[in-house]
Design a protein that fits this description.
six-stranded antiparallel β-sheet; 4 helices
Length: 171
């Protein structure tokens, strides 16, 4: 655990204890006391998860529609250890033909087809060919919209292409 998260957890525990002491010795109705305790615990929970997202943990939000792939790590599923499998991406968003200032870590659920695409893209990156990623709704997503019972299917199809050569201006 990060030192900042530990300090933050201790600070919230301290303030929660103060709220608890104030609630015990106050002459307020019991439902207001219960509400204050629930709110204090809720703030602790929300801030803990908020700090995880801001401290470099991989985002579970959808990958951008177009991005530059820097690297990826594949965690294969393992039934013996109850690991579902994930693929971690380190990428920079490309919007309006501009590369974002800072790269971002993203995580997507594991799938065998995506595994092979990512391995091919990483091989090309090692060979010196930068890779552009394209994210688009998959056919399974369209089926899911028609049949909600298939809601746990892959949400996005991710494709990789070679970064095109830059056109130099004429002299």
């Amino acid at each position: 655990m990060n030192e900042i998260l530990l300090i933050l957890a201790l600070a919230y525990a301290f303030f929660s204890a103060l709220v608890l002491i104030a609630v015990i010795y106050s002459k307020v109705t019991w439902w207001i006391k219960a509400g204050l305790i629930v709110i204090a615990v809720g703030f602790y929970y929300a801030s803990y998860h908020g700090w995880q997202n801001s401290q470099g943990w991989a985002s579970k939000t959808d990958v951008p529609q177009q991005f530059l792939l820097h690297y990826a790590i594949i965690e294969e599923p393992n039934k013996e250890e109850n690991i579902t499998g994930q693929i971690f991406f380190w990428l920079s968003d490309i919007r309006n033909q501009q590369l974002s200032a800072n790269p971002r870590a993203h995580v997507v659920p594991y799938s065998r087809p995506l595994h092979s695409k990512v391995e091919d893209a990483l091989r090309k990156i090692r060979e010196g060919t930068p890779q552009i990623g394209l994210s688009e709704p998959s056919k399974k997503r369209l089926v899911t919209e028609l049949d909600p019972s298939q809601a746990n299917e892959d949400e996005k199809a991710i494709l990789f292409e070679d970064l095109p050569d830059l056109a130099l201006p004429e002299k």
